Amino acid sequence: MRYGLKDLSVDTEARLVCRNNVAIKLPDLSFDLLVTLIEATPEPVSNLVLCREVWRREHVSDETVAQRITLLRKALGDNTKEPTYIRTVRGLGYAVVGPVEFLENVTTPHIISFLKYPGTLAVAAFFAILFLSIAMFSNIPMANTQHETTTVGANQKSSATILIERAQEQLRLHQARETDRAIVMLREVLTQKPDSFDARLTLSFALSTKATKFGGGLREKLEAESLARTLIREQPESSNAWSALGYTLSAQGQPNESLSAYQYAYHLNPENAPALSSAAHVLLLRGDLQQALVLEARAKKAGGTSRYAEIQIAQILELIDHPAATAWRMKALSLNPGQVVVLSEVAKSYLRQGNPMAALKILEQAEGEDQSAPQIMYLRGRAAIMLGRLKEARLILENIGWRGHYELAALDGISGNTSRAQALFLPSKRAELEFDPDPATHIKLAEITATLGQESEVLRLIGHAINLGWRDINWLKQSPYLSTLMSSNQGREIESRIERELDVQRRLIEGTKELTSILAN
Fold this sequence. Notes:
Blueprint: E1 2-5, E2 8-11, E3 16-19, E4 22-24, H1 28-40, H2 47-55, H3 62-76, E5 86-89, E6 93-96, E7 100-103, H4 112-115, H5 120-134, H6 159-172, H7 176-192, H8 197-213, H9 218-234, H10 239-251, H11 255-268, H12 273-285, H13 289-301, H14 309-319, H15 325-335, H16 340-352, H17 356-363, H18 374-386, H19 390-398, H20 405-414, H21 419-424, H22 427-434, H23 439-451, H24 455-468, H25 473-478, H26 483-486, H27 489-510, H28 516-519
Antiparallel strand pairs: 1-2, 1-7, 2-3, 3-4, 5-6
């Protein structure tokens, strides 16, 4: 996102502030403070909100906030008595001066941190080569950058190659800030080499990652799809390009098309383990647990590794109540410490068990900015609701935008405020949601409807979710909104229906020789 404030340009992806194309170097805290004020405009931001948004803490002294404001003003050349950029609003906090302009994503300025400060490029090259020598395969494919190298020498790489490789390593960290930095690096490459296949491929994956895990939206998904389809037209036999298409289609709620793309990616390259694992995830959401587990087993035989294979195996085995689920969950944590998706799924497991305190403890393992990743914040809010800490839950959920909207609507419904729920159930919006292929969406709608006392509609929504593949009995039983229903005769009928589906999957899984090693873990 790029904003204009007076003569300043603020690029949140590049984490760059420029005045007349000259960079103003800001420490991370100062940059985060400026962006927080800009995004709140024209409203002032209180010290309490700044504590949460900038320092990621519940309390920071007023003196600390004031000192950081002073440092930011000094860096921008602002005048306290006659402020140009930041003003103090007595009793309310701080605000920016004047209107903020949204700037379209035109060409990002060259990455000044690389090009302006001596030695940085050489350091980047060193770390890129070092990381490449020890990196394991993950869901972000290693681009084939051999055609990006220069002809100056056999061991010399072009700056474009170095940036692509470094972006790939940033993506493998699976953290919000690193994903944004990778996107900036890749856009920088494309300003120099707009036809770079590898840069476009990696950018497609990066945009889908941002959209699904770190608060991106439809714009990122559509750009990722456009890139992937263009690459397929150019190289229809590229397994990684088909994987990129599968990833963005899955992010857009198109599971059938996504599954086909992943399967074709594997057809083109039987060593593409991440494509198989991603296809398994789609099948898991559709309730086809045996086939999902078969694909995970084949992915392991393919030779590479997928970052999410172990946690997806644990999810499947937990649904059929298999004792090997615990071992796979522990393996996922040991292989991917601090990784957002893994932590989220382990936290969900504790919530299914009715243990929100254990879920919160697991979520605390998220590092840095990942503490504010939407799925981490959502689960923190859910755990707080289960603990009866509704005020705390509301503060958490209100900080993750539309991703917390469903939960807030249900939370409002408990207190008799139905405005959010009514907005969701307007005819135009309801029609859109009705065709959402994600069963979790219909479970969320059922929870909201339950707070409105519409039992027949709740049952219809849950039934629809089961038709789409929902198999998680314990999530329903531990829901703070569905507990009364699930303890009733209708709830027992729902449980029996899901159990029948799971029993078939359990029998299929236990009777599949290909899965023996997974079940014996």
